[in-house]
Structures are given as C-alpha cells and as structure tokens.
C-alpha cells in the first residue's frame, strides 16, 4: 500500500443559504433524518419543496410531495438536492446515492457534511457532523495523530475519512473494513493467554458473544445502562462459557447519576436531553482488583469520560484497547491524544467498520 499524503483541510462553501431561502431545496430520503433536516431547514427560513426517493410511486410525507428519481416533476432537477440520509447501512452508501441522483439530472447533490453548518443549531448533535471549516484550526493535532498511527493502512483510513468528512469525496475507499469490529486479527493475535475482557456499552451482548469467538476469555464484565437492552444482555451472557458479570450501569469519570436518553437500542446515550437518569461508575472504582487485559468502549460520545474514569486501571494493566472514535467530530484527535498522554508507549491503529464513516474504532496495543 502506497504511503498516503495528509489531505488539505481547506473546504469551499457548497451551500448558498440565500438562494436556498429564495428557491427552496429538495431532500433525498424521507426517513427520520430527512424529516429532521426538513424541520431544521424550515426553521432557518429554507422551504423544502419535496422529498426525493430512489424508487416507488409519487406521494406525500408529512404533507410534502414525494417523488422517485424516475418520475421527478418538471423543474425539480434545477433545485438544490440535499442528501437526507445519515446512517451506516450499505443501502445508504453516499457514492451510490450521489451517482443515482446525478444520473437523474441533479448536478451537485450535497452530502449532510456539506450543508450541516447551515442547520447546525437546529439539528443539534449528530455524531461526527460538524462545520467542516473548523477542521483547519486543528491541523496540528490531526497531523500529530497521522504521525502517531502505527501502519500505512491506518494513515490511509484517516486521510480518506478526513476527505470524506470535508466533502472532498463521497466515499471512503475500502471501507467497511473486512475484519471483525473490536476484534481485528492484529489485536487478537496478542491475546495469547486467558484474558479478562471489559465491554462498556455492551448493548444486547452481541460484542460479548463476538469476544467469546475471537478471544481466549477467562472472565468478562459487561456494562449496559439501558433498561431495555440489559435483560437481553443478561440472557445472552447466561449461555457464554466464561464467567461473566453484567452491570446495569454506564461508565464515566464520576460515580453518580447522569441524564440518559434510553429506549433507542444501541443508540441510547448519555446527554442533557435524556428522558431518564442512570447510575454511572468509574471503572477504576468498580473494578479495583480485577485483572483487565482487553477493554472495549463504545458509549455514544462519552468515550473520553469513560477513559478518564479508567486511567488507573489502564496504567495498572495496560490492556489492549478498542475505543469507538466516531461519535463526536473531535474524537479523531482527542482520543489518540489521551492515549498518547498516558506515556505508556501504546501503538495505535484505526479501522472503519461501516459505511459513511460510522463505526470507526481506534485500537491501541
């Protein structure tokens, strides 16, 4: 693999709010994110003329016209088209969507990262979406991470991910990665002895089950605070061979209670807008005497807080780390900087396990 160059962080402004407010826009898709984009656009004085879908028959969605790419009303291809799809699924691959829209006659469909800044205040936090112009201010931090990464593949992934987030490319080549999420071969090869595994953000036990397939587990601890997810986690854990302790708590930098938006499956998350409150614990205090050899963290944007609460544990055992790095736009450098700041000589790699930049994971060893 050819050594990659660090990409330019310069971006051109693709949106024209003045023209959009005057003529309106179209939104590709009519799912939850597309409807949220419509509400945010209209809150910013931008009328939404209609929704565009890949196939089907004309209709309406929330009172707005819906038309398939094969049956667009006259004049629609002259309007700006904003891609209103934002998830990790294969059917949502942006390159394929953009190609289909261009084939239908749209000149420059815009990705969510290209128009997000116009709607940011109304849309709020949406994982890694951010004002693309803000990346340039963190050039030094990002080039530091680029140099910190241990292999050419990781540096290629970071460069391609940045180009994608900056709207310079509609795709991330060779992503999703073929390896198992959280358990790539290069990390599992280092787990030669029976290990203690900690799964934070254990959801329904799917990662715990995967760990049992990929690692020689001695013991496992699984943390999951969502009231709907936890019973499924506990049931799954009953059928696993290693001794497993399931803990109905989240992990953070404090021991206490925090607001939590529950009932959203694997997307349940800590946050001020939560509909309930949950117990959170510092892993340092919850597992003071446990031998931890492998730590996985995927907690919907609370990764740095959870790491802070596990610093003593990490310093004591130097476990292999699998840390989700895509929930917030600045995870790209803040998580690697935190790991480097430990001064433990961790080596770092990056892999992307889903479409559109989702499920990017930092692996440290």
Automatic annotation (TrEMBL):
Highest rank taxon of the organism: Bacteria
One Pfam family in the UniProt entry: Methyltransf_21
Gene3D superfamilies reported in the protein's UniProt record: Vaccinia Virus protein VP39 (3.40.50.150)
Domain Methyltransferase FkbM: start-end pairs: 199-328
PANTHER family assigned: NODULATION PROTEIN, SLL1456 PROTEIN-RELATED
Listed name of the protein: Methyltransferase FkbM domain-containing protein
């Amino acid at each position: 693999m050819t050594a990659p160059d660090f990409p330019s962080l310069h971006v051109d402004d693709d949106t024209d709010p003045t023209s959009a407010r005057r003529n309106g826009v179209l939104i590709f898709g009519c799912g939850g994110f597309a409807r949220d984009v419509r509400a945010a656009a209209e809150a910013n004085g931008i009328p939404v003329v209609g929704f565009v879908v890949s196939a089907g028959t004309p209709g309406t969605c929330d009172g707005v016209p819906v038309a398939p790419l094969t049956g667009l009303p006259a004049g629609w291809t002259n309007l700006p088209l904003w891609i209103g799809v934002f998830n990790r699924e294969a059917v949502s691959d942006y390159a394929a969507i953009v190609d289909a829209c261009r084939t239908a006659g749209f000149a420059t469909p815009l990705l969510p990262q290209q128009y997000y800044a116009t709607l940011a205040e109304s849309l709020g936090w949406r994982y890694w979406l951010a004002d693309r112009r803000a990346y340039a201010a963190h050039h030094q931090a990002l080039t530091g991470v680029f140099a910190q990464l241990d292999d050419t593949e990781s540096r290629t992934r970071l460069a391609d991910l940045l180009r994608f987030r900056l709207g310079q490319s509609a795709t991330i080549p060779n992503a999703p990665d073929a390896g198992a999420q959280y358990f790539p071969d290069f990390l599992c090869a280092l787990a030669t002895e029976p290990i203690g595994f900690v799964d934070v953000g254990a959801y329904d036990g799917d990662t715990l089950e995967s760990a049992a397939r990929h690692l020689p587990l001695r013991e496992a601890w699984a943390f999951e605070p969502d009231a709907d997810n936890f019973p499924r986690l506990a049931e799954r854990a009953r059928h696993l061979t290693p001794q497993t302790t399931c803990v109905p708590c989240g992990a953070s930098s404090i021991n206490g209670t925090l607001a939590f938006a529950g009932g959203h499956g694997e997307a349940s998350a800590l946050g001020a807008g939560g509909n309930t409150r949950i117990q959170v614990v510092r892993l340092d205090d919850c597992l003071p005497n446990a031998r931890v050899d492998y730590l996985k963290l995927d907690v919907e944007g609370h990764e740095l807080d959870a790491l802070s609460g596990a610093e003593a544990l990490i310093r004591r055992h130097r476990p292999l780390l699998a840390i989700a790095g895509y929930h917030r736009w600045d995870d790209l450098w803040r998580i690697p900087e935190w790991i480097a700041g430990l001064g433990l000589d961790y080596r770092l790699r990056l892999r992307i396990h889903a479409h559109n930049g989702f499920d990017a994971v930092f692996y440290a060893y």
